[in-house]
C-alpha cells in the first residue's frame, strides 16, 4: 500500500509521512521535556522558581512541527533525487560522495531553515529568527555530524531513492525530538531574556518614580 502510494503520489505521500513523523518527534520531546507544572506556569512564575519559562501551547507547538515537516518533504525528496542523478561513481565512492554532499551542503542549510521556519511559524520577528539560527546552528550541526553520516551511508548505499526520505524520517523521530527540545529551549531562553529585561525596566521605572517623589 505505502509502496504503491509512493509511486502514484510520491510528493503527497512523503509530505504526509514526514509531517506525521515530525509531529511524533515533537510529542516525544514534550513527553521528555518540562513537567506540567513548569509548562503551565507563566514566564514570571517560572523565573521565580528558577525554571525556564514555558514556550507556548503544546498543541500549537506540535502543529508547527507537523506543518514544517509537511512543507519540508518536497525539498528533502528533491535533494535525494538530485544527488542520485548528479553524483556518480562506484557503489562505495558514490555513497561517500553523496554523504559528504549531504552533510556539508544540505545539513547546514536544512538546520538553518528549520530554526528560521519554526520562528516564523511562531510569529516571531525576523531578528529573533536570525538570532535563533546564530545561536543554535553550530551546536546542532555538531550533534548532527555525530549521528547522520552513519545513517546516510546505509540510506544512500542500500535504500532505493524513492524510499530515502521516508527511511530517514523514520529514523529521525528521535532526532526530531532532539531538534524540538533544542528549539523549545532556545524559545525559553529568549523568553527569559525578554522577561528579565521587562522586569528590570519596570524596576528601574519604579525606582525613578520613587526618587522623583522624594
Automatic annotation (TrEMBL):
<dbReference type="InterPro" id="IPR007248">
    <property type="entry name" value="Mpv17_PMP22"/>
</dbReference>
<keyword id="KW-1133">Transmembrane helix</keyword>
<keyword id="KW-0812">Transmembrane</keyword>
<keyword id="KW-0472">Membrane</keyword>
<feature type="region of interest" description="Disordered">
    <location>
        <begin position="38"/>
        <end position="58"/>
    </location>
</feature>
<comment type="similarity">
    <text>Belongs to the peroxisomal membrane protein PXMP2/4 family.</text>
</comment>
<protein>
    <recommendedName>
        <fullName>Protein SYM1</fullName>
    </recommendedName>
</protein>
<dbReference type="GO" id="GO:0016020">
    <property type="term" value="C:membrane"/>
</dbReference>
<dbReference type="GO" id="GO:0005739">
    <property type="term" value="C:mitochondrion"/>
</dbReference>
<dbReference type="Pfam" id="PF04117">
    <property type="entry name" value="Mpv17_PMP22"/>
</dbReference>
